[in-house]
Structures
1.
Amino acid sequence: MKILTASQIREADAYTIANEPIPGIDLMERASRACANWIQTHYPPGQPVIVFAGKGNNGGDGLAIARILLEAGYRVHVAIIQHMEHASEDHIMNLTRLKALVNSPVQVVHAVNEMPAIPAGAIIIDAILGTGTNRPVSGWLTNVFHYINNKAKNSTIVSIDMPSGLMADRSTKNAPSVHADFTLSFECYKLAFMLPENADRVGTPVILPIGLHKDYMQHVSTNFHFVDRSIIDTLYLPRSPFSHKGTYGHACIIAGSYGKMGAAVLATRSCLRSGAGLVSAYVPTCGYTILQESIPEAMCITDPAGEFSGSIHDLDQLGITFKAIGIGPGIGMHPSTVKSFERWITLQRQPVVIDADALNIIAGNPSLVQFIPAHSILTPHPKEFERLFGKTTDEFERLGLLSAKAVAWNIYILLKGRFSAIACPDGSIFFNSTGNPGMATGGSGDVLTGILTGLLSQGYQPKAAVLLGAYVHGAAGDAASAHYSQEAMSAGDIIGHLGDVFLSIRESASTNKL
Ligand SMILES: NC(=O)C1=CN([C@@H]2O[C@H](COP(=O)(O)OP(=O)(O)OC[C@H]3O[C@@H](n4cnc5c(N)ncnc54)[C@H](O)[C@@H]3O)[C@@H](O)[C@H]2O)[C@@H](O)CC1
Ligand SMILES: [K+]
């Protein structure tokens, strides 16, 4: 799914109005009905509803939702927030329609002391500002937001299109905004929803299709995408009935050190569970028994240094042709490991997966960047990202940096998070849609490294591998949390659920082809 900017959404609205064609007021009615339906599906008519409406089209949506809910038997109170003098045309039209209803209560609020009381258990509809927000909110609106956020007990804030105060494409990290429980947003995710700085403002985003014109949506060009199932199904490569283990490549996981052999075990196991034909683990001698006993299906190559790896650079001399290599989980930062990694990276000619301490080694010696093979995949978490690329003032700036580095280094960078951001060498960014907080646990990243290496090994191109790998990793985490709970699940449980995810993708990909 494409993620559009506020101005592209305005263009999409205008294109739809002109080419469907449909009057703007009817498009607003469609959007408002989609919201009202969602509310009616989730909350019974007995609950009081308070609608806070601004003076633009977001407010117009609020007024239309109020009318539809009133007609459906809800008790609705409407407060128009006078944040500007003149109302939009469609706001005025919807106000007229609302006032035509018998006993419809409409109050105009000019100051925070005029705000209506919010009863316990109320559904608060926040339709003050939407994608038209063009500056951080200040002045008395700040107090209005504060009043709404300090809502009465058991009430729920449902923001329409955007939590008021948030800008779709710019940081409003330090500006006031409504903190929604749910944000019902039209047609597509907004960039602001993808960023951790807005997590407690957006609440749960719900995307409601409103039938914006297909031609516009197909042709509009954007750098930002949300990786949903429709993208994933097109990436999946079914295995050929005539294949053998050689078809799916020999993968190598370079991982582990004394006390961190679990990282090697997790990455190796997830690599095997992601379809590699053969998997070798390259580990220090101290990890030999651990690895062989826990994963009999994997081969094991040992580094003579003992408790850490110091001869990674000699791997190429073994005469084995690896189809894909993943390096980093648990390797540590012993000076010999650092030196050995530095030599090894200069010898690589095909895309590799680089994670954890391998990233920290590169951060400590930025001249290594020139040796990272084109289209390699780097998987930093935010701290590793900062060590590699430096600090940024907000997360929009960080996205810009992420994209610029992926272009400059000609690589894929997967920045881990709730919606992991995957930057591609062409500058585009894909946000992964799966995963949950239960995955914020030791070893989860090692599992991802193994999955990515396994996918590369069996012939996925790096872009397909990183998009599919991130999705599968998150989806297996979701399945694990459904089974064990977010608290009790561990990284190994993610591996345990990879099978369910591959089965389900295989099934829907083959159904789509019928
Ligand atoms: N155009 C269309 O056809 C549709 C628009 N829709 C709704 O229209 C919304 C966009 O409407 P508008 O473009 O009228 O904009 P908004 O309703 O978001 O904002 C209204 C006005 O508030 C003012 N404003 C901006 N920032 C402010 C700030 N920080 N403090 C105080 N005032 C500020 C601006 O003058 C802005 O035009 C969408 O979010 C969506 O809810 C939907 O009804 C779907 C269809
Ligand atoms: K809003």
2.
Amino acid sequence: MKRRWLEAQADLVEQVLWQHRSPGRVTGGRLTPTAIFFQIVPAPGVRWSRLKGLAEELALALGVPSVRIQREGPVVQLEIPRPDPQTVRFLPLMEQVRRTLPRYPLYTALLGLATDGAPLLIRLTSPQVAHILIAGTTGSGKTSLARTMLASLVLTHRPAQLALVLLDPKGTAFAAFRELPHVQAFVPGDPSEAAACLEEAVRWMERRAQEGISTPRVLIVIDELGDLVQQGGREVSGLLARLAQRGREAGIHLLACTQKPSAALLGGQLTANFPARLVGRVVSAEDARVAAGIGGTGAERLQGKGDFLAVVGGTVTRFQAAYLAPEELRAMLRQRTANERG
Ligand SMILES: Nc1ncnc2c1ncn2[C@@H]1O[C@H](COP(=O)(O)OP(=O)(O)OP(=O)(O)O)[C@@H](O)[C@H]1O
């Protein structure tokens, strides 16, 4: 049934290409949780720019809001959103990872499922990571992704290995985590309290660097970095920049979400110090460039709701974020807190 439907989609694509005098053969038909990927083998003489220009016509013919046409080496990839997108569920994916790996790697967070079907993880202590910026417009799934990463970390690390500082201006992003023994500080609302907390973190960083202490590793998680910097002004951006520049050696890492990844808002010094970027849907190609730190990623054509690019060490990996519904998260964390206390 699925095969036949995929073949019909491929035929439709070939028809559109033929009608627009850019014939090509459509092969593949790989399903990911949210999209179908085809490969187009253009007939001799068909120009890449012409194929690329047919995105709107293809979307119209297939009855979808948009399609992505990307060139990957000699191959042209066509990506069509699935009419029946599937959620990548956190718990089964986490179980799969723990089953396949002999030992869950330290300081490593689960992100989701890459388009090649493999689970995607990110290691805080890798030299190409250290601090992570999650950028994307509203509804792209930033806060949900940060929660997924946090959930995977607290499930696999003891408080003696990993401590958390949670800055949550809305007070709703990370509230579910606040009772966990890993949490050193939970700061909802009030930017002046957030500034005081960051000041303490800087003092702590300096002391740890002097004494050569780097455990427990500390992860400072910030929802809406843009708001925090806007409200807290120079003082806050200065503190954050210091943590980003010198935190790594003292075992302090930052994970920050932002709707507005602009250097003008966050300060060039701060943005330059987030080597790893997780980029969800953004509104323009310019925002995509700033968010990813490199051009041409096409993040402005992502679907939202957990459709992300991981940009780490010059490599771009597309993935669908694993998702934990709020009630699932609460139940899981209750269990985890009970285990730690018991
Ligand atoms: N990985 C995912 N899989 C499926 N649905 C998701 C996923 N991530 C987010 N969503 C859906 O998208 C909604 C918005 O997600 P989220 O609040 O994380 O976005 P956001 O980018 O943080 O938005 P805002 O900036 O407005 O806070 C969620 O309520 C959920 O319904």
